[in-house]
Design brief:
DUF4440 domain-containing protein; two-stranded antiparallel ribbon; 6-stranded mixed β-sheet; Nuclear Transport Factor 2, Chain: A; 162 residues; alpha+beta; 34% helix; NTF2-like_dom_sf; 3 helices
Length: 162
């Protein structure tokens, strides 16, 4: 009986801690990510990444300043009518490290008809001086050679962090 109670308490404590970490990550990563990306604010966007962040796309790896400089340059002076939303497959953390896998959907409303862009992401995060930072960000537009389309994600519930 004592073993069952101890196991139950451990499970409840672990679940509450995981939820707490997810809430912190949502507040310190995904909300500022969304706001900075939609506002084309390169400085705010770079602030949620570690100094030695790895940014991986198929065929390309940018590290640290190379990635952050490109963000600042690409976002400078841009005005875009777009929003970004996320849906998650996996959200795992163990205290100071976290790894999340999911999909993003970008809605571009700059034309008469909205256009949608989607992809899959893997993001590794680490708590640095008590604040969550993205240390590795990878995304792609296909899985096993199959293109990810808005239609392939229609059953997923997307979150817009505000």
């Amino acid at each position: 009986m004592k073993t069952l109670i101890a196991a139950s308490l451990l499970f409840i404590t672990s679940s509450l801690y995981a939820q707490s970490a997810q809430d912190e990550i949502d507040q310190q990563i995904w909300t500022p990510f969304t706001k900075a990306w939609e506002a084309n604010d390169g400085e705010a966007f770079n602030a949620i990444h570690s100094d030695d962040v790895w940014r991986i796309n198929p065929g390309r790896l940018l590290v640290g300043n190379e990635y952050k400089s490109r963000n600042a340059e690409n976002m400078q002076g841009q005005i875009r009518a777009r929003i970004i939303e996320f849906t998650f497959e996996t959200r795992t953390s163990n205290g100071n490290n976290a790894y999340e896998v999911g999909y993003y959907r970008i809605t571009d409303s700059s034309q008469e008809e909205p256009r949608y862009f989607v992809g899959r992401f893997h993001v590794a995060m680490k708590k640095i001086d008590g604040i969550w930072k993205i240390i590795q960000d990878w995304d792609t537009g296909e899985i096993n050679g199959e293109k990810i389309t808005p239609e392939s994600l229609v059953k997923r519930e997307f979150i817009h962090f505000e």
